[in-house]
Amino acid sequence: MKLGWIGAGRMGFDMAKRLAQGGCDIAVWNRTRAKAEPLSQVGAKIVDSLPELAGRDIVFCMVSTWNDVKDVTQKLLAGSAKPRMIVECSSISLEGSAELRQILSAKGIEYLAAPVSGNAKVVKAGKLTFVVSGPKTAYEAARPYLDMMGRGSSYVGEGELSRIVKICHNVFLGVVTQSLAEITVLAQKAGVPRHAFLDFVNNSVMGSMFTRYKTPGLVNLDFSVTFTPQLLRKDLDLGLDAGRRFEVPMPLASLTRDLIQQMIGYGLSEQDFSTLLLMQARASGLELKPENVKVSDGLA
Predict the structure, then answer these.
(1) What values do phi and psi take at 25, rounded to 5?
(2) Of these four, 23, 58, 172, 222, which has the most CB atoms within 10 Å of its CB?
(3) Do both 59 and 178 map to the same domain?
(4) For the whole model, what pTM was predicted?
């Protein structure tokens, strides 16, 4: 099929790159064309306007916010041409996703909500995963392209079910990171170097892709942004809203949300959300220093 791609940012660039390298016929639009230009070197066509993508079979969207999604969709469909399907991969709310589905349904366009698990490093390593909801036939048509971008996809049903799964995923992300910060600081204050403690965790039954790829940053205090505290706070708020809607108590999520807010208040909002480690150390009377130890992120 002929593919269109909207958004060549931190995530979208490498997702589109994997499709282009896989031999797909793909055209890419980005608000700042220069950021998308390098994709032409791997076979992608770079376009100047969104309506140029409207004649494509499947158009993927990977942008920042619901307002961005609405804006690019309106511009994409401004002319008479329309794609067969839109696959929306950004992190947006249940309400926003439902509104988009309604807009596209009225125009006879199939819609898949397909948020992702992973960051830019995970995309580069080919280990991105998708959770998808929408018509099953549309999913089967898009599935080969989703699989080409990572380790595969999980179909969870109709409507916006993938959005609630993504919200649950990011609530888990916040709670797990806070827990990891607590036990790492506890072990260090008792005398265990961070790299040694995290090496054990990563090789234990509790280790995961997430704990492994966060380890170099936690050991050497590299908090280069993969996901900001503000974005994590937004997703925790969405999770807590869903908890209220479905009458599910979420005490750990609520506490973690307050700790994220505290971290933002202390001015630690321009770095990665894993600066929760610094907050935990500060609360424990411990001053952390980089250990300058080379450790694997588990993605190679």
Answers:
(1) -85, 100
(2) 58
(3) no
(4) 0.91
